[in-house]
C-alpha cells in the first residue's frame, strides 16, 4: 500500500502543467529510473485513477496520449507552504514581474495564488512584509515582448531534460525571413525585459543568443544536447562577458572628471575594485578605474550628460564628445 502511494505521488510530481504534457511511456521510464519496477499497464491504470481525484487532463496528439495538470489546478504542496516560503513567492511576484517573460509568470501563477492565500490566513508578522518593501528601477522600465507560450514551454522542457530543439526563428538582422535551426539549448538568460536562449545551432560549436520572442515555433526532439567542450554558463556570462558586447579583449584604464553628485554615488557603488576617487579642487573629482570597453559603458557615460567628462582613453573621449555634439545638433 505504501509503495503504491509513493509511486503515485512520484507520478503526480512528474506530470507538467498544461500546455506541456507527458506520455505514459515516458512517465513509466521516469518511474523506472527512480526504482519503481512496475509495468506500463500499471502506470496507465494509475493515471486513470488519479485523474478522477486530481485535476489531470489527457490529450491525444501525434499518435500518443499526453497527460497534464489543468492550467487552473491549485498547487499541490506536501508539506504546505510555510509563511516564509509564501513570502518569497509573493516578493517574486511583486518585484520580479518586469523581468520575467509573461509565460514564466503564467507558469508561476498557481504558486503566487497559493502564497497569497497562506499570507492572508497566516498570523505571522511576515504577512505584512510586502506592504513595507519597494523596488525602484534606475533605468527606464520597458514592457516585455510577447513570447509564444508553446515555444516557451518547449524551450523550458528542453533545458530541463537536456534535449535538442527544432526551432523556427526570425532574426532581427535578416528582415522578415524565417529561419529553421536544430538547436542545442545550454541556458536561459533574462536581461531586463528580454529573455534569451543560449544555444549552439546545428553541429557548430559557437554559442549563440536567441531572443525568445523571435522563436515562432519550437519542437522538442529526442536527441540529447551536445554542449561545447568545457562550456559553463556563468563563465560565458561573467568571464567572456558575452552579454556586455565587449569591443576589445583587454579592459581599458578609464579616467573621468565627475561632479560631486556622481562622485558620491560611485563612492558607494564603485565601477571596479581598483577604482580611485580624488578631489580636483574645483568642485569636481578624478575617477580612475579599469573596466571593459562595452556598448553598455558608453550608454552609461552618456546618461550622465555634463555630469561626467571622459579624459582617457582618448578614443572613447572623442566618441562620447561626437555623440553629445550630434545630440545637441538634433535639438538645435
Fold blueprint:
Blueprint lengths: L1 H13 L7 E2 H10 L6 H12 L4 E6 L2 E6 L13 H13 L6 H20 L27 H13 L1 E7 L9 E13 L2 E8 L6 E4 L3 E10 L8 H7 L12 E8 H9 L7 E4 L4 E8 L3 H9 L4 E5 L1 H17 L2
Antiparallel strand pairs: 1-3, 2-3, 4-5, 4-8, 5-6, 6-7, 9-11, 9-12, 10-11
Helix pairs in contact: 2-3, 4-5
Q: Keywords for this structure?
A:
5-stranded antiparallel beta sheet, 4 domains, 10 helices, SH3 type barrels, alpha+beta
Quick take:
By secondary structure, the chain is α+β, with helices and mostly antiparallel strands. It has helices spanning 2-14, 24-33, 40-51, 83-95, 102-121, 149-161, 233-239, 260-268, 295-303, 314-330, and strands at 22-23, 56-61, 64-69, 163-169, 179-191, 194-201, 208-211, 215-224, 252-259, 276-279, 284-291, 308-312.
CATH topology of the largest domain: SH3 type barrels
Q: What strand order characterises the main sheet?
A: 7-6-5-4-8
Classify the secondary structure makeup into a structural class.
alpha+beta
Helix content: 25-40%
Q: How many runs of DSSP E, i.e. beta strands?
A: 12
Q: Give the overall silhouette.
A: elongated
At CATH level 2, the architecture of the largest domain is Roll
Number of helical segments with 4 or more residues: 10
Average residue-wise pLDDT = 86
* Largest β sheet strand count, sense and barrel closure: 5 strands, antiparallel
| % residues in beta strands | 15-25%
Intertermini distance: 82 Å
Amino acid at each position: 500500500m505504501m509503495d503504491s502511494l509513493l509511486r503515485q505521488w512520484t507520478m503526480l510530481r512528474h506530470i507538467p502543467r498544461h500546455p506541456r504534457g507527458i506520455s505514459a511511456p515516458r512517465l513509466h521510464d521516469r518511474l523506472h529510473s527512480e526504482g519503481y519496477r512496475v509495468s506500463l499497464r500499471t502506470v496507465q491504470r494509475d493515471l486513470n485513477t488519479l485523474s478522477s481525484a486530481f485535476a489531470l487532463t489527457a490529450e491525444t496528439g501525434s499518435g500518443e496520449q499526453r497527460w497534464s495538470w489543468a492550467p487552473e489546478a491549485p498547487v499541490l504542496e506536501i508539506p504546505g507552504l510555510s509563511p516564509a516560503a509564501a513570502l518569497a513567492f509573493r516578493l517574486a511576484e511583486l518585484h520580479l514581474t518586469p523581468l520575467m517573460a509573461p509565460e514564466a509568470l503564467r507558469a508561476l501563477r498557481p504558486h503566487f495564488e497559493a502564497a497569497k492565500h497562506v499570507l492572508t490566513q497566516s498570523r505571522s508578522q511576515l504577512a505584512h512584509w510586502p506592504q513595507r518593501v519597494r523596488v525602484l528601477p534606475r533605468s527606464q522600465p520597458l514592457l516585455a515582448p510577447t513570447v509564444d507560450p508553446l515555444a516557451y514551454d518547449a524551450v523550458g522542457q528542453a533545458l530541463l531534460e537536456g534535449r535538442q530543439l527544432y526551432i523556427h526563428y526570425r532574426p532581427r538582422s535578416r528582415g522578415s525571413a524565417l529561419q529553421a535551426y536544430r538547436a542545442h539549448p545550454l541556458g536561459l538568460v533574462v536581461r531586463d525585459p528580454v529573455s534569451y536562449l543560449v544555444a549552439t545551432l546545428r553541429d557548430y560549436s559557437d554559442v549563440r543568443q536567441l531572443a525568445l520572442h523571435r522563436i515562432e515555433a519550437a519542437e522538442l526532439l529526442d536527441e540529447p544536447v551536445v554542449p561545447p567542450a568545457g562550456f559553463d554558463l556563468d563563465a560565458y556570462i561573467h568571464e567572456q562577458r558575452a552579454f556586455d558586447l565587449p569591443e576589445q579583449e583587454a579592459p581599458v584604464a578609464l579616467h573621468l572628471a565627475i561632479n560631486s553628485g556622481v562622485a558620491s554615488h560611485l563612492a558607494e557603488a564603485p565601477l571596479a575594485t581598483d577604482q580611485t576617487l580624488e578631489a580636483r579642487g574645483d568642485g569636481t573629482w578624478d575617477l580612475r578605474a579599469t573596466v571593459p570597453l562595452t556598448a553598455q559603458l558608453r550608454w552609461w557615460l552618456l546618461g550622465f550628460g555634463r555630469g561626467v567628462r571622459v579624459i582617457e582613453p582618448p578614443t572613447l573621449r572623442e566618441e562620447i564628445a561626437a555623440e553629445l555634439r550630434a545630440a545637441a545638433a538634433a535639438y538645435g
